[in-house]
Structure to design on (336 residues):
C-alpha cells in the first residue's frame, strides 16, 4: 500500500477509535460472561483481592486464590463458598437442573509468596495439574514499606519491587503460554494512580507501580503485534483505596472532599465493569485521567506548585510517621 494511502487509512482508524470510545459514554458495552472460567487472583486474602474474588464468584467463575496468608485466604474462600451456596439453594436436589451445578463451582486456595519466582512457578504447576488451564489472571498482590528512602532497609525495597512488579513477570510467564496456544485469556494488572504520577516519600512503591504499568503496556503491544486478539489486557489504576494500606495519608483539608479515599467495593466494581467489557484501562475516579494528562503537558515546576496547592507534596508524611512509630516490623509488610 502506498504510504500516503496508508496514512489516510491510519488517520481514519484513529478518528474511528475516538468515535467508538465516545460512543461508550452513551451506550454501555455488553459485559462478557465468565461463568465456568478459571480465575487466578493473587493477594486474595484481603483488600481488593478479596473483593475481586467475591465479584467473580457472583458471576459463577471458578476461583483460584493465592496469598501468603493462609488463614486470610481460607476466610476469603469460605465467603466465596457461601456465595456459591446462595446462588444454588436447591443444589443436590435430584429434580433440579442447573447450568453449572454447585459441585462444579469450586474455589481453590494456594499458599504462594509471589516475591519468589520459584514459589510462583511451583504453585502455577500445581494449579495446572489440579484445576487445569486458567482463563483470567488478576495480578493484584501488593505491599508498601512505609519508610522514607534513606530510612528503608534494602530488603524492604527489594520486597516491594518483587511483589508489586517482578511478580507480574513470573505469573505471566507461568500462565501466558497456554493462553497463547488457545488464543484466549485475560490478564489484569492492578496498579495504582501512583504508577502514573508520583509523590514524595514512597519512592519504592511508585517505582514498583510504574514498572508494573510499563510491563503491562509492553505486553499489550506484544500481544497485538502477534495478532493474539483473543487475549485481553486490562490495566487498573485506582486512587488511594481505603484498605488501611496508606492509613494516615492526608491532603489539604479544603481539597479532601474532591479526592476522598476510594471504598474498595466501589473500586472493584468499577474495575469489574472494565474487565468484563474488555476495556484496556480504568482510572478511578475519572479525574485521575486528567491528572495524568496534566503531568504530560505541564512543566515540572508547575506540577510542584499544583502539588503544594492541594497538599499532595507531603500527603504521605502522616502515613510514614505512623509507620515509623510502629514497633512491629511485620506491619510494614502487610499486603493489600
Amino acid at each position: 500500500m502506498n504510504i500516503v494511502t496508508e496514512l489516510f487509512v491510519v488517520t481514519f482508524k484513529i478518528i474511528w477509535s475516538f468515535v467508538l470510545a465516545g460512543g461508550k459514554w452513551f451506550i454501555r458495552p455488553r459485559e462478557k460472561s465468565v461463568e465456568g472460567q478459571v480465575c487466578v487472583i493473587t493477594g486474595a486474602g484481603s483488600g481488593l483481592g478479596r473483593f475481586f474474588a467475591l465479584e467473580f464468584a457472583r458471576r459463577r467463575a471458578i476461583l483460584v486464590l493465592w496469598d501468603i496468608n493462609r488463614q486470610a485466604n481460607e476466610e476469603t474462600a469460605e465467603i466465596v463458598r457461601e456465595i456459591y451456596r446462595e446462588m444454588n439453594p436447591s443444589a443436590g436436589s435430584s429434580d433440579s437442573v442447573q447450568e453449572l451445578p454447585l459441585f462444579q463451582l469450586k474455589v481453590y486456595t494456594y499458599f504462594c509468596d509471589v516475591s519468589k519466582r520459584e514459589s510462583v512457578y511451583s504453585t502455577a504447576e500445581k494449579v495446572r495439574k489440579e484445576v487445569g488451564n486458567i482463563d483470567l489472571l488478576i495480578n493484584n498482590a501488593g505491599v508498601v514499606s512505609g519508610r522514607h528512602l534513606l530510612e528503608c532497609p534494602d530488603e524492604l525495597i527489594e520486597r516491594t519491587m518483587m511483589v508489586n512488579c517482578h511478580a507480574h513477570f513470573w505469573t505471566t510467564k507461568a500462565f501466558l503460554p497456554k493462553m497463547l496456544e488457545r488464543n484466549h485469556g485475560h490478564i489484569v494488572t492492578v496498579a495504582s494512580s501512583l504508577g502514573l504520577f508520583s509523590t514524595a516519600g514512597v519512592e519504592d512503591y511508585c517505582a514498583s507501580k510504574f514498572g508494573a504499568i510499563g510491563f503491562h503496556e509492553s505486553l499489550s503491544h506484544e500481544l497485538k503485534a502477534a495478532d493474539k486478539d483473543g487475549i485481553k489486557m486490562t490495566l487498573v489504576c485506582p486512587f488511594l483505596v481505603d484498605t488501611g494500606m496508606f492509613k494516615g495519608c492526608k491532603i489539604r483539608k479544603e481539597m479532601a472532599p474532591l479526592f476522598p479515599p476510594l471504598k474498595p467495593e466501589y473500586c472493584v466494581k468499577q474495575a469489574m465493569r472494565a474487565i468484563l467489557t474488555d476495556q484496556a484501562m480504568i482510572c478511578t475516579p475519572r479525574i485521575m485521567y486528567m491528572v495524568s494528562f496534566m503531568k504530560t503537558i505541564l512543566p515540572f515546576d508547575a506540577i510542584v506548585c499544583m502539588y503544594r496547592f492541594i497538599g499532595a507534596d507531603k500527603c504521605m508524611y502522616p502515613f510514614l510517621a505512623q509507620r515509623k512509630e510502629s514497633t512491629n516490623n511485620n506491619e510494614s509488610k502487610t499486603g493489600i
Observations:
- Strands lie at 38-42, 62-67, 107-111, 136-139, 185-190, 231-238, 281-284.
